[in-house]
Design a protein that fits this description.
The protein is mostly helical. It has helices at about 30-35, 40-55, 60-75, 85-95, 100-115, 125-140, and strands spanning about 15, 20. It has a two-stranded antiparallel ribbon.
């Protein structure tokens, strides 16, 4: 019997031309694929949030809904795109141009932080709150940018 090829992360693989490639660290291939995908839109995040909420996965729904809110504000040029923005930073930056929504933005950040970092359970009420805030923000015009807040 022939020798078996090593398995696992140390295994080397050959490309179609027969050249041996060095092993790819776990996750590196996935990161390469992600770099070539288009960024998700607010609508993409909303659809994911709705799917999660429909199956009772409220923590995932809340995470996606907050991403939808952030992306919506970026797509509308209310906030500049900034990878790594925290929920609290999002609330602070958005409240500066959407003052009537200040309290709701900070509450949304608190709901997100409670489930993401505080290990509190996500609820249908939390999901509903973020969904309603998302709907209001889509109709709200920024203050000081030629528009009036509603």
């Amino acid at each position: 019997m022939g020798a078996r090829a090593p398995a696992g992360p140390a295994a080397r693989s050959a490309d179609p031309a027969g050249r041996v490639r060095a092993p790819v660290p776990a996750g590196a291939a996935a990161r390469r694929r992600l770099r070539h995908r288009r960024p998700l839109t607010a609508a993409d995040h909303r659809a994911a949030a709705d799917t999660h909420a429909a199956t009772g996965e409220y923590a995932a729904a809340i995470r996606e809904r907050l991403r939808a809110i952030a992306r919506e504000l970026e797509e509308r040029a209310i906030l500049p795109p900034r990878p790594g923005r925290t929920a609290t930073e999002l609330a602070a930056e958005a409240a500066a141009t959407l003052p009537p929504q200040r309290d709701a933005l900070y509450r949304a950040a608190a709901v997100f932080n409670d489930i993401a970092y505080g290990e509190r359970p996500a609820t249908a009420d939390g999901d509903r709150f973020l969904r309603e805030l998302d709907e209001r923000l889509r109709e709200t015009r920024p203050v000081g940018n030629g528009g009036r807040s509603e």
